[in-house]
Amino acid sequence: MEEALIEMYLAGVSVRRVEDITRRCWGTRASAGLVSKLNKQIYEKIELWRTRRLEGRFPYVYLDGIVLKRTWAEEVRNVSILVAFGVNEDGFREILGAAEGAKEDKEGWSAFVKDLKSRGLEGVRLFISDKCMGLVESLAEYYPEALWQRCTVHFYRNVFSNVPHTKVADVAAMLKRSTHRRTDRRRCRRQSWWSRRLKAMKLPAAARTVEEGSARL
Question: Fewer Cβ atoms within 10 Å of its own Cβ: the N or the C terminal residue of the chain?
């Protein structure tokens, strides 16, 4: 019952509606005080997890922002959740942190990365993320020794945003064949072939995106 009450509250169900549901389901009304008490307990547990000390070393760390819907004063708003998960030295993944931000900007990412470092995140050899400039700048500030790589998924999405739906499959196959399936960096950075191909397909914007992105290969 407690878990159901917490889930309803987190889903945005009003306290009054929770009272009506509990009365119909269980024959007794869950008071506003009870709902508040339960949520206070769960938020305390969440905060303990979110601020825990990070143990061990994480050579690879992925960063991204997730946009979710949030009900606030009976109004639905978009809110960005900044998330980091790392791969430890044994190859296992672990969620390192999550923080709410009004938007993905330099201030938000800088505070998030600073918090990860203060909680003990170390041993990072490579960060993987999208090309959010505020994020990239924050990484350089707090982890200057670590490398940064643009996320392949985000890179493809940026390219596909300039490609008609009917040509997405062809462009995706071309990029994978000419770039991300190669193991030689020098050959990957030879952009003339697929750049000409994209321009021949009348996709100059996509060609520019690929050319700019190739500098980070």
Answer: N
Q: Is 206 exposed, middle or buried (0-12, 13-18, 19+ CB in 10 A)?
A: buried
Query: What's the pLDDT tens digit per position in 129-149?
Result: 988 878 999 999 999 999 998
Non-local (6+) Cβ contacts of 178 within 8 A are 188, 193, 194
Q: How confident is the model at residue 55 (pLDDT cuts 50, 70, 90)?
A: very high
Structure tokens belonging to residue 53 = 């000390």
Contact present, 63 and 129 (Cβ < 8 Å): yes
132 φ/ψ sector (left φ>0, alpha ψ -120 to 50, else beta): beta
Instruction: Give the span between the Cα atoms of 151 and 132, in whole angstroms.
Output: 11
Q: How far is CA 190 from CA 85, 174, 206, in A?
A: 32, 14, 16
